[in-house]
Amino acid sequence: NLDEAREHAQAVLKLDPASAGAHTVLAFVASRGGDTRAAGRHFAKAAELGPQGATLNNYGTWLCGNGRQAESLAWFDQALADPAYRDRAGALANAGSCAVQAGQDARAERDLREALALAPESVVALGAMAALAFRQGDAFAARAFSERRLAAGPADAAALQLASQIEQKLGDKAAAERYTRRLRAEFGDFPAQARDN
Using one digit for the tens of pLDDT, what is the confidence trace for 70-94? Predict the structure, then answer.
C-alpha cells in the first residue's frame, strides 16, 4: 500500500526530519509511482543522513539505473567499506553490473567474480557476467553465464534478449528463436528495436 507507506514515512519525518529510513521508504514509494526525480532526492538524502551500506547501495543503484553508472561506483565503494553491511554480495553485484555499463571491464569482472564467490546464484552478477563476456567476444562463456542466470531466477526481457543474441552469435538459430519467442510471449511490450540490437 504505497499511500499508507508514504503517510507513515511523512509522519516519521515530522517527528524526526533526519530519519534516513523514512527517506528510504519515500524513495521506494516515489520509484514505484514513477517519480524518478523524487526517488533520487530521497535516496540521496537517506545516504547523506544515514551513510550505512544499505542506504549507500540504494543510492548507487538509483544512480546506475538513471544513466549515471560511473558516478554510482563511488557509492558502491562506500557501501562496501561499511563493515556492518551484510549484503556485500548484493553491493558487489550492483557495482559490477554498473561497471559493465560504464565500460570499466576490469572493475566489472573483479566485482562480479567476488559477488559470485559469495552468492553463486546472484541473478544480477550472472546476468552482468553474461553481458560482459558477450561484449568481449567470448560467446561460449557468455552462454554459460546466461544459462546459469536463467536457471537462477525468473527471466527478465534483457536476459532473454541477451540469450537470443548469444545463440545467434554461436550459430544456433533454433535456440536463438526459442529465446526470441519467449521474449515476445512474456514481454510483448519490450521494444522491437531493442530486440534487434
Answer: 999 999 999 999 999 999 999 999 9
Measured between alpha carbons, how far is 79 from 98 in angstroms, rounded to an integer? 14
What pLDDT score does 68 carry?
Answer: 96
Cα–Cα distance, 168 to 4 (Å, whole number): 47
Residue with cell 565500460: 103
d(CA 190, CA 150): 18
HEC letters along the chain? CHHHHHHHHHHHHHHCCCCHHHHHHHHHHHHHCCCHHHHHHHHHHHHHHCCCHHHHHHHHHHHHHCCCHHHHHHHHHHHHCCCCCCCHHHHHHHHHHHHHHCCCHHHHHHHHHHHHHHCCCCHHHHHHHHHHHHHCCCHHHHHHHHHHHHHHCCCCHHHHHHHHHHHHHCCCHHHHHHHHHHHHHHCCCCCHHHHHC
Q: What is the C-alpha separation between 99 and 76, in angstroms, rounded?
A: 11
Report yes or no on whether pTM surpasses 0.85.
yes
Distance CA 6, CA 51 (A): 22
Which residues, given as ranges, of the chain have pLDDT below 70? 189-197
